[in-house]
Please model this.
Amino acid sequence: AAEPWPENAALYQQLKEEQILLSDNASSLAVQAFLQMCNLPIRVICRANAEYMSPSGKVPFIHVGNQVVSELGPIVQFVKAKGHSLSDGLDEVQKAEMKAYMELVNNMLLTAELYLQWCDDVTVEEITHPRYGSPYPWPLNRILSYQKQWEVKRKMKAIGWAGKTLEQVLEDVDQCCHALSQRLGTQPYFFNKQPTELDALVFGHLFTILTTQLLTDELSEKVKNYSNLTAFCRRIEQQYFEGHENSSTGAARSSKRSLLR
Model:
């Protein structure tokens, strides 16, 4: 039987308006979408030091009872242990397929977001450094930004992305979107009529890409080429976020443009 979900359950992320970056915003929105789909209420709390409060050093993390759990994968497992699951109706083959597509999203979209934020020189100077360091005084703001940039660049080198051009990264995003678009087809969700954690993950990343103001629209244009993916984002926004208090998608939409136009 499902355990009762505490009313004071909270999700922590960085400051929404001035600090949070594209990749963290996408990851946070994916977790919020997953919890909404499970019908588990959560309060979003923004803290400048959320990254340093997290047990894994990554956001978002949830605080439920006396448990603190970070990132979508472990949160899905934690929620499942409490008796709530979105993918119980899938057979083993479908579960394996779902995991493969989630890996694709994390390996392509999340990595592309990190690359754009920390490896594209103009974006780094114009957006990433000012936002990432915004809560802190000089010179700490620059020190923390450079530290994070060094971390991400080391990761990019390890996975073979350090030598890529922005055009190659955008091509990877396009290939990922193409694969997702083909899998979705004309269905409302990736696996028939009910959402799974894959739907939450894809929504978090695509919605954030579509609604985040960057220096150019090249990234969002890759997603917009696939009308079924943008319709998918609208559908989840309407069903799970509109009219909900403390919704993160409202602020995202007002910062750029509504998906509903």
Notes: The chain has one domain: 10-241.
